[in-house]
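Researcher: Structure for this, please.
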Amino acid sequence: MIRKFRKWLIPALFVLWAMLIFFFSSQTYEEQRISPFLGQLNTPFLYEKLGGISFMYGGLEVSVHTAGVAGFLEFFIRKGAHLIIFFVFGFLTISVWRTFVKNGVISSLGALLCVLFYASADELHQKFTGGRTPLWQDVMLDTFGGLLGILCFLIINRRRKRHSMISLYISTPYK
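Model: Predicted structure, token format:
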């Protein structure tokens, strides 16, 4: 009974996490905006420290000079959220695949393709949400986060198997 429940727990978590991503994608930029809160930080000090950082993302310059300190920090928080949310999604995706497909290569590639597909669908969904801009760079960032989650799962799984093999070897009595 417990094993049957456990077998469906991971897919249920996977579906709930996918719904959470969809919910966040349904919000407008204004609903997710945190720069007013970040604007309360010590701006002159941070402006001086971060003023030399500048790079291009999605065809736009990202810097303190173009976005202000609050907008610059918000950019990193939002992109970090992309990475973390899809890290968990990738971890759950490979968990589901490994529950039903025992071949490691097929389950890993299948999970990565699912992450790429969902990241693409997520950006497409944002196209129809007010104040949001779909970017292929975000698809790549999301996919990279998912890949990290998949790799983390595989490393944990490998260590767990190695540990159980060592325990089995140590606990086996000699004859």
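Researcher: Any notable elements?
Model: Strands lie at 54-57, 60-63. The mean pLDDT is 88.
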